[in-house]
Structure formats: C-alpha cells, structure tokens
Amino acid sequence: MAFDKEKSAGFLINHIARLFAKELQHRIQPLGIVTGQFPILLELWEGDGLTQRELLEKLDIEQATLANTLTRMQRDGLIKRTKHPTDARAQLIWLTDKASKIKNEAYQSAAQINMESLSVLSEKDQALFMEFMRRVIAGMRSD
User: Fold this and answer.
1) What pLDDT score was predicted for residue 141?
2) Cα–Cα distances in Å, from 3 out to 6, 10, 137, 140?
3) What does pTM read for this prediction?
4) Is the pLDDT of residue 119 over 80?
5) Residues 6+ apart with CB under 8 A from 51
6) According to the model, what pLDDT value does residue 33 have?
7) pLDDT-derived band of residue 142, with 50, 70 and 90 as boundaries?
8) How buried is 114 (Cβ within 10 angstroms: 0-12 exposed, 13-18 middle, 19+ buried)?
9) Which of 50, 120, 121, 131 has the most CB atoms at less than 10 Å from its CB?
10) Under a CB-based contact definition with an 8 Å cutoff, are residues 112 and 27 in contact?
11) 71-90 confidence digits (pLDDT tens)
12) Are the CB atoms for 47 and 93 separated by under 8 Å?
C-alpha cells in the first residue's frame, strides 16, 4: 500500500502543529519567550513547584530537551530552581515574577490563535475535533 501524506494522521497533525507554532512564536516573541518554553510555562502557570520528573510526565518530551529548555529558561529569568525538601537529587521549579507577569498575555495569544485556526469549523465540529485529539493522545499514552 502506498503512503499518502494527505491521509496520514501523523503528517496532518504535525503540519497543524508547525503552523500553530509559527503563529504562536510570532505572537509571544515580544513577551520574551519561545514556543519550546510555552508548554512548560503552561504547566507551571497551573501550579509551580514541580520537579523535572513531574514536568516530564505531563509534557511527553525527552529528558534532555526538557533539561536544556529549563536551563535556558533559568538563564532568561523565567524560572528558578530550589532544593527539594525531601529528595536531595531533585529540584523544584518555580516561576519568577517575570514569567508570572506574562501569563495573561500569553494565554490571550494562544486563545486567539486557537479561535482563528478553528474558525473554519462549526462549534459542534470544533468540539468533536478537540475530543478526537484527546482520544488519540490518551490512546497513544496508554501504549
């Protein structure tokens, strides 16, 4: 059977992700952040004081990628790390005031892109699309 990229979920999802990331980068760059930092910030805005291991479990990214991104975020003044109170090997990751101050504007940027991107679908189709994506993610995580 021949491969057809237009019938490939992986290709199409990746294409959507690239288009979304490109637009998101354009909008969040003035805030001093990049798209690779955005998922980490989203998790920490929901509740900081997480360990690197906890972030890995939430984000489904490689350990080395997360470690490098956290190092850059610390360098850029977006996070700080403190010793874990009970695990000498772990550190807790906290948002700085700088990162906290950009939360609302970053959320607004992402929400605007979501709205614009999904505007080609009816509200019902948008809800179905989101549900289908959540199901695929859950299925892939369970493997």
Assistant:
1) 87
2) 9, 12, 22, 21
3) 0.89
4) yes
5) 84, 87, 90, 91, 92, 93
6) 96
7) confident
8) middle
9) 50
10) yes
11) 999 999 999 999 999 988 99
12) no
Number of H helices, E strands in the chain: 7, 3
For tokens 């059977």, what's the residue?
Answer: 1
Spatial neighbors of 22 by CB under 8 A, at least 6 apart, are none
Six-digit token pair at 31? 């805030």
Give the pLDDT confidence of 39-71 residue by residue, as tens digits: 999 999 999 999 999 999 999 899 999 999 999
Whats the size of the chain, residue-wise? 143
Query: From CA 136, how far away is CA 10, in angstroms rounded?
Result: 11
Residue 93 belongs to what H/E stretch?
Answer: strand 91-95
Give the model's pLDDT for residue 62. Answer: 94
Question: What domains appear along the chain, each with residue ranges and CATH number?
Answer: 10-31+102-143 (no CATH), 33-98 (1.10.10.10)
Q: What is the DSSP letter of 21?
A: H
- Neighbouring CB atoms inside 10 A of 111's CB total 10
